[in-house]
């Protein structure tokens, strides 16, 4: 979880691969209207997000009921959003933390993403820090993606969110 441009999709996919888990990018569940708004530099409102968050939660619940571990890349910026997502069993979060400057630099370097760079400030404004939440590990995004993912897996195992294999 984290603001746009922090590396959610890349890191989540690496984590899923390392765990032999399924992977889903929650951005794929956004309706076209949400993507159009974000592409146009218009921040989503809570009203835009609630139906999408319910879809993400349902995907998490379905995956959890299959018994297979699952990793979902999702911004989950507000505590109220995480409260909805937490309705899926065994939900925990990897909060990808980085400076606005680093994330902005990375956003400028990516291509083909619908999220307008101009929305970064609104992402940081919407973020309710999850640092004190019991089902969250915080990971610095300064290193290379493989190191970030390895640090995340190690932190999840240390906090016993994952079984140690």
Which features characterize this protein?
47% helix, 165 residues, two-stranded parallel ribbon, mainly alpha, single chain, Rossmann fold, 11% strand, 4 strands
Q: Radius of gyration in whole Å, from Cα? A: 15 Å
CATH architect. name:
3-Layer(aba) Sandwich
**Main sheet: which strands, in order across?**
1-2
Q: How much beta, percentage-wise? A: 5-15%
**CATH level 1 name:** Alpha Beta
**Number of beta-strand segments:** 4
**Helix-strand topology string:** HEHHEHEHHEH
Multimerization status: single chain
Poorly predicted residue ranges = none
CATH homology-level superfamily: P-loop containing nucleotide triphosphate hydrolases
By CATH, the topology is Rossmann fold
What is the straight-line distance between the termini? 24 Å
Main beta-sheet strand count, sense and barrel state = 2 strands, parallel
């Amino acid at each position: 979880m984290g603001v746009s441009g922090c590396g959610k999709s890349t890191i989540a996919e690496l984590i899923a691969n390392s765990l032999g888990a399924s992977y889903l990018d929650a951005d794929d569940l956004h309706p076209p209207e949400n993507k159009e708004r974000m592409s146009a530099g218009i921040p989503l409102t809570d009203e835009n997000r609630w139906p999408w968050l319910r879809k993400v939660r349902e995907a998490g619940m379905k995956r959890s009921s299959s018994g297979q571990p699952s990793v979902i890349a999702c911004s989950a910026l507000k505590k109220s959003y995480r409260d909805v997502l937490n309705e899926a069993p065994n939900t925990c979060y990897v909060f990808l933390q980085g400076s606005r400057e680093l994330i902005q630099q990375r956003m400028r370097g990516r291509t083909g993403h619908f999220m307008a760079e101009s929305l970064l400030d609104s992402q940081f404004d919407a973020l309710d820090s999850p640092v004190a939440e019991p089902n969250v590990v915080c990971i610095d995004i300064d290193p290379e993606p493989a190191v970030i993912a390895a640090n995340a897996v190690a932190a999840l195992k240390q906090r016993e969110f994952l079984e140690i294999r």
